[in-house]
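hi! just following up on the protien thing from before. the input was this:
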Amino acid sequence: MTPPGSARGKKSLGQHWLADGRVLERIADAAGIEPADTVVEVGGGTGLLTSRLAERAERLIVVEKDDALAVDLAREYGGSDAVTIVHADVLTTPSADILRRGGGAPPYVVVGNLPYNIGTAILRAFLRSPAPPRTLVGTLQAEVAERIAAGPGRLTYLGVETQVYAEASVLFKVPARAFRPPPKVHSAVVRLKVRASPAVAAEDVDAFLQFVHAGFAAPRKRLRNSLAVGLAVKAPEVDALLEGCGIDGARRPAMLDLDDWRELFAAHRRAS
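and the predicted 3d structure came back as:
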């Protein structure tokens, strides 16, 4: 197999190999792997995180898109009954297929040093899966990780979208020197503990997120104005909606919490 850390990442895949052993150990520990868990690693790369997950998991499925890296990983773990390399694109391969091809089953945990350019898309794909994981732990651009886990005051649409499905937290920052090659951005490890069911009824999730997206149409404006713009309605209609929920329209959209958005959405549906 390629010597750990020696391969250069492909910019087109957003690859920066995480090579700091202490950070890798912290990520593997943060996954909270339990005996019954199948572990899915997104992007095995040069295998530095893979080796640590293999020590903890009874069943590890490594999804690797890169042709050469998938071959190297398969060569390294070809004799293992506990580790399976799935050569596939995680964004176009349903989680059920990944589990089937790797001989795994729910409950499962997802772990990975996620490519910056598709990190949120990967999280979204697993969260929206018919059979989502129990936990996701991944390395992302620090700014993105903070937006995902933000609470009232700094909440964004991305935060609401994620928190509908999971409880999110930023575990720790990762310095650029921990990667090869070092990225030009700061990184952080985020953990998502997936809810037993979405915070909004499953059949309403898409409509709810469309409503929240409308609410963040002008995030720097007052909520009253942002909702009017996003919903394409007149201000008095928005005023009635906000007053009915006891929410101050002078607040910015970021000041609300998930419960506020759920309440506003429910009131909007009743008024429609």
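The longest helix spans residues 258-271.
The first strand starts at residue 17 and ends at 18.
cheers
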